[in-house]
Write a structure and sequence with these properties.
single chain, 364 residues, alpha/beta, Deoxyhypusine Synthase, 6-stranded parallel sheet, 16 helices, globular
């Protein structure tokens, strides 16, 4: 085998129980999925060492499982996450605990017919009373009827205003379970949703649209896509720094964020090289053609990731987000030098759109 200083020997030392988690990840995860975990840890830290703008994605229903409070909020507050794309479910379930409701661990094999008779909602091994949903529906329905919502909005604008209301309620009740909505509002982190209509907040908007002529809130999906591309272009051109993407779980949030690069280069005619660092944590196998399992290499053929990213700064960690993310967040936060002031790119949305407008070719 040819000697290569970049290839280290697989010779971990015995675990003593006295190691720090960051030390374990860097020295005791030698191969297979463990090596992927080690590489994910390295690349998350490299993203911040290089002062990248970090576009994070979060799929599924992770906030009812507690990952919003335990992992995503700390990443936002330490300045790690610059932009977040997530599902309607994560935004909606984010406020249950703030409203005083409890989500319990339950047996996923307890019997769904009996659970339905008892009006218990199940998300695999999580359970909560149906009244949790009904009160959350009423909460969001009241908010979206406020005057400041009666206009065309993009999802970052919509979620920023939701976050303003949620943050105010957190301050009022002294909430011990901080929300992603509140943290993003306070730190200027835009929240995109590529399928905002696939969630209970929008279902309540449907009712209001049909019943109340004064309800004028509409989601401008075209401008929404443009804003994603504009922010990626602005982060690279104005900051003169690389961009990283952290993908937690695949799904629509993953592709909605990645497609900003081909939007720029292939559709709008504005030069874009793709993301420079790509960290993916997803359970999907990579050979079924699903976008959830698209690797950085496959994404490179679409212009979503750079050639350098594919060669040296990408990892596809095939495991469940709920297993990997708490360890990765702990390791990252254990290094104080990686904390930084939030980039607050939400505050630069108008600047980003103007910069991209100016970059468009004349024939576009």
């Amino acid at each position: 085998m040819t000697a290569d200083e970049s290839v280290r020997p697989v010779a971990p030392q015995p675990i003593t129980g006295g190691e720090l988690l960051s030390e374990l990840l860097s020295t005791r995860f030698p191969a297979f999925a463990g090596r992927g975990m080690r590489e994910a840890d390295r690349l998350l830290k490299k993203s911040l060492e290089d002062d990248c703008a970090v576009f994070a994605t979060l799929s599924g229903a992770m906030t009812p499982a507690g990952l919003g409070t335990s992992c995503i909020v700390p990443l936002i507050e330490c300045g790690a996450i610059s932009c977040l794309t997530t599902t309607g479910a994560n935004v909606y379930h984010d406020v249950h605990r703030l409203l005083g409701y409890v989500i319990h661990e339950i047996d996923p094999n307890a019997g769904d017919i009996a659970l339905r008779e008892e009006r218990v909602i199940r998300i695999y091994d999580l359970g909560f009373d149906e009244e949790t949903l009904l009160e959350t529906d009423r909460f969001f329905a009241r908010i979206v009827q406020r005057p400041e919502f009666q206009r065309d909005m993009t999802t970052p604008e919509f979620h920023y205003e939701l976050g303003r209301q949620v943050a105010a309620l957190e301050d009022e009740v002294g909430n011990p379970y901080p929300t992603v909505l509140g943290a993003c509002f306070r730190n200027g982190v835009p929240i995109f949703s590529g399928a905002v209509q696939d969630g209970s907040i929008f279902l309540n908007m449907v009712r209001l649209q049909r019943r109340d002529p004064a309800f004028r809130l509409r989601i401008d999906v075209g401008r929404d896509v443009y804003q994603m591309g504009a922010l990626q272009h602005w982060c690279r051109q104005s900051r003169e720094k690389d961009c990283a993407i952290w993908i937690f779980g695949g799904g629509v949030p993953k592709n909605y964020t990645l497609q900003g690069e081909p939007l720029l280069d292939q559709i709008l005619g504005v030069s874009a090289r793709g993301f420079d660092i790509d960290v993916q944590v997803c359970v999907d196998v990579v050979d079924n053609g699903a976008l959830s399992s698209c690797t950085a290499g496959e994404g490179h053929t679409w212009g979503k990731t750079s050639a350098e990213c594919v060669q040296s700064t990408s990892v596809y960690l095939r495991t469940d987000v709920t297993v990997a993310l708490p360890f990765l967040v702990h390791s990252l936060l254990s290094e104080a030098t990686l904390r930084r002031a939030p980039l607050r790119i939400y505050d630069r949305l108008a600047d980003a759109e103007a910069l991209l407008d100016a970059a468009l070719p004349a024939d576009s």
